[in-house]
Each structure stands twice: as structure tokens, then as C-alpha cells.
Amino acid sequence: MPPAHYGYLASGVDDDATLFANHDAFSKLRIRVRRLIDVRKIDTSVTIFGQTWNSPIALAPVSSQGAFHPEAESAVARAAKVQGHGMILSTVGSTSIEDVTAERGAPVWYMLYPTDD
Ligand SMILES: Cc1cc2nc3c(=O)[nH]c(=O)nc-3n(C[C@H](O)[C@H](O)[C@H](O)COP(=O)(O)O)c2cc1C
Predict the structure, then answer these.
(1) In the chain, helix, strand, coil percent, each to 5?
(2) What is the pLDDT of residues 63-97, one digit of tens each?
(3) Helix 72-83 to helix 97-104 angle, to the nearest 10 degrees?
(4) Is the dihedral of CA 19, 22, 24, 29 positive or negative?
(5) Which of ligand 1's atoms lies nearest the C-alpha of 88?
(6) Would you say the CB of residue 22 lies under 6 angstroms from ligand 1?
(7) pTM over 0.85
(8) Which are the contacts of 99, defined by CB distance < 8 A and separation ≥ 6?
(9) Of all protein residues, whose CA lies closest to atom 25 belonging to ligand 1?
(10) In the chain, what are the domain boundaries?
């Protein structure tokens, strides 16, 4: 990967302030261990805005994925489909919303950068 692409992926904006804030917030989360629970049937589904997802995990919008892999958002959509994860496509993605929706097998959310037009 070219160094500039790696830098874009690995770093944040504005002095990395939100990157550190996110990391700090996430580090406060703990997994609570519960024993003697029947785990033969686990339901991780959630309903958000009337849509039911198998998993509470959704992939945040990441722009220009073609800079990191030739299959870009299509490959990510296929991975999301396997576990039923939600996916948010960036306005500045490398793949059309039609192609991503087809690979995901369900509608994806769209992160819109509004313009003044
Ligand atoms: C390379 C890269 C591109 C991103 N592109 C977008 C984008 O187009 N739109 C957006 O709303 N957020 C974008 N983000 C922000 C992510 O959606 C996410 O909010 C951020 O990375 C924090 O989550 P994390 O701690 O899991 O990385 C981008 C992040 C990265 C690293």
C-alpha cells in the first residue's frame, strides 16, 4: 500500500483528537461474564428504524476503499452479508450503491455528504 494511503487509513483528523477520544471511550467497555447460561440458542438481533438485523454490529462508512483493495466495498459487503452485519456506504466510496446493495443482498445505509447544490 502506498505510504499516503496507509497514512489516510491509520490516522485521524484534527490532531487525532477524535481518534484518541474514541479509543478512550471504547477502552471503558467491558464484557460481563455470566455463567450457567443456556447458550444453545443465542439471538443477537436488533431492530433499528424498523429494520431487523441479525447482529448489532454495523460497519462504519469508510471512504475510497478502492485505495486499499481492488474489490473495495464489494468485498466488504460480502463479508457483512456472511454475519448479517449492517453496512454504511460512504458518499465518497469507490463502488456504486447498486453494486454494494447487490453484494450485501439487502439495502445498505448511505452516509451523505451534503453539498450546497
Ligand atoms: C480511511 C477512513 C475513511 C473514512 N471515511 C469516512 C466517510 O467517508 N464518512 C464518514 O462519515 N466517516 C468516515 N470515516 C470515519 C469512520 O466511519 C469512523 O467513524 C471512525 O473511523 C471511527 O471509528 P473507529 O474507531 O472504529 O475507526 C472514515 C474513517 C477512516 C479511517
Answers:
(1) 35, 15, 50
(2) 999 999 999 999 999 999 998 899 999 999 999 99
(3) 30
(4) negative
(5) 17
(6) yes
(7) yes
(8) 73, 74
(9) 22
(10) 3-111
